[in-house]
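Troubleshooting log. The previous structure file for this entry was overwritten by mistake, so regenerating from the original sequence record. Sequence copied from the archived sheet and checked twice against the printout by T.R.
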Amino acid sequence: MNKTDHIVQERFEAEEQFHDEWADSADIDSIDVILMNESITAPEMRQITQSLGELGGKSLLDVGCGLGEASVYFAVKGANVTASDISGGMLKATEKLAKRYAVTLKTHKSTAENLNFQAGEQFDIVYVGNLFHHVDIEPTIENIKNVMHEKSTLVSWDPVHYNPIINIYRSMAMDVRTEDEHPFKRKDVALFKKHFEKVDVQFYWLTTLLIFILMAVVQFRNPNKVRYWKKVVEEGDKWAWLYKPLAAFDTFILKLFPFLGWLCWNVVIKAENPKK
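Regenerated output below.
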């Protein structure tokens, strides 16, 4: 094993350990998959679900499934789901969550850079939630294209690099993040346009980021003990009074000044027609 391969292997092992520990500490019985995907404060998933339309009977691969909130949700919606993850602990959590919701799905242990499916295995939809910023993006895209046919759709969402307030939070919340994270830059989004004929890009969370500031400076929530991005979804009803008007303003201002999207928290990408 050369030095580069050794570094990559160390990264894989660190990611697996981190997510195994996360899975061990999670209360699977408390997860509400409908809330986590339909909450007013989950605009990324609401946009993705709306854009995909009817899921019944479609084959769907969830790359980096985590605790399985999206995998199980898509299964509830009727998709034939395969959940993949680098963490065996996360896959066990996903299986437990699926059992709770009385749905069936397949699990598949692999890295995102090497999905390791049998030759010819393809999916109608590939969902990649909050994962690309953990991996080597272009090899992962190329690997995902191998399990897509010409009419398949790739949907993903990830954090964006440029907002200074978010970067302060990232520098503080080191216990709930891995060291290799790299939020999206312009060049990363450009990779999708390089590999797909049709790419739609939507940004979310600009002035709505005020909620996170209130969590920190008013509620004094420790960012190393509370995953803000999960908690804000779980508490969507509590924050709706503030989120709704700010989200409406975000929609308005981003239409007027689309370049401000790069100061948002997250970007949603829908990519179709993979280039050969």
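Residues 2-7 have pLDDT under 50 and may be disordered. Archived copy saved in two places this time.
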